[in-house]
Amino acid sequence: MAEEFKYSCNTASETLEWIHAIINFIAPYRYFLDAHVVNFFKDRLWEPVDKEWMDCLRKEPVGNLLWIPSGVVQDHWPGSLKEFILTLRSLSLSREQADFQEFSGMHIASLSNVLAQGMNHKKKHEVEALSALVSLVAKQVGARTVVDVGAGQGYLAQVLAFDYQLSVIAIDACSHHGKITDARAERIRKHYAAKMRKNCSEQREFSVPKTVTCRVLSSDTLRALSNSPVENDHAGNQHLSQKCSVSQPARLAEDILPSRSYSDSTLVIAGLHACGDLSVTMLRTFLECDKAKAVISVGCCYNLLSEEAIDIADSCCGFPVSQGVKSAGVMLGKSARDLACQSADRWRGLDEHAGLHNFELHAFRAAFQIVLFRHYPNILLESPTIGRQGKALRRQQNQRILESNLHHGGPSESGEPRKSVSFLHEYSSIQSSKSCKSRAVDGYSLFVKFCESGLGRLHLPHLEDTAYSAVWRESESYFELIGPYWSLRAALGPVMETLILLDRLLLLQEYDSDLEASLLPIFNPVLSPRNMAIIAKKIRK
């Protein structure tokens, strides 16, 4: 049985030991990492999996399957299966939200209604925690300026400016986001000014975030940013000139700050879910820029990381970034990066109906892949996307269920399972009250609707009923394998994310001994699955 051994990452050598343990363990399970679940039936993806595991899990309740990615096993399972799941758990970073009461000088305050306007529950939770952490770190390193990278609509930037009185530069690739940030900040400024006048308080100047519109998703555009002057438009908003020459990524902060006439020449780089390579770019900029004294990066969208240049010594790809992982020659691939985006905490919070919907949706999509393969093989060369087929609505419903369970601790006020808005709910809800024959008919009719909807989205003509029925007959008996396979594969997700994050941490640890770097889970993982912050500070000599 796997030991409950907790790896540590306090030093570069400890981090590298953890990374090598992950690499060595996942090597025999490459068939999970490289798999694309839409090809489940076409490529018979269950065949490489231990038959004893599949025979055991195909009989398990859906609820037990949903807990596998969280490392929960059942006593009656085969020893090798329990060993696999428990080892994965021991190799994964702990996702439980940190107790901020242990941090001296840090206080998470609830946002006022005016600052929280427009935020959903998840965003409010994230901004409250991250803004308090950024403020604490800025105070520790003696910085009064924060560069918010990938600022979006400026929620974090505005809280840092208005609540914590920090000078904030909000950078985002979308000019529309910049305009929204400016307009929202002006409304907030007017609100506070009016409140002070009403209370006869002493008038004071508010620190309003300054917006910069620039795409910094690649090293090329970030280098181009360095020689691009900041200009005012007619509305007084500040943007970057489009005519740029090439320089070094570290000049991101070197050039922006002087152009804004800040007396404080030190800064903190922060990012809330900076997408893909952008989170890595933040870390590299922090290392190479003297004025950057700290960085707080919460990454996301690992599926968008670049990996193409692993064999080039000076490459600026998104993975791997540390010399230790580069030396190991590790490549993830698109499917493994997708897997790193899975959320074990969210899946275990779902009820059995929602879990069943998930498995049914995968089964229908995998069977539809055979339809395409047989009748429209050329379309598969284009990696077709047929949309989420009700998944987006179901995800919103599931999020409401999870948030409600956080407050109420149960499935619903009535005690009944909550219903999904997916059309697959019709299939699952009628199973217990119908015969096997009528259940098959109901499932088949929904499968036909799924296929016709998918073909319509791909602008392809519908097929004769015999085309659908042939695929259904071949696939239906294997539907029960989807849940076990998906759950076992998803159990690798937390480990893949751990590998990506440890690679980033090791990049910082390799750079300089006069640097403190750590990983900290700062959000509730059920509300915000990408809850790990990389925090690094340059130690004053």
Automatic annotation (TrEMBL):
Signal peptide: none annotated. It comes from Solanum pinnatisectum (tansyleaf nightshade). This is Methyltransferase domain-containing protein. Residues 122-307 form the Methyltransferase domain. The lineage of its organism: Eukaryota, Viridiplantae, Streptophyta, Embryophyta, Tracheophyta. InterPro entries: Methyltranfer_dom (IPR025714), METTL25 (IPR052220), SAM-dependent_MTases_sf (IPR029063). It holds the Pfam family Methyltransf_32.
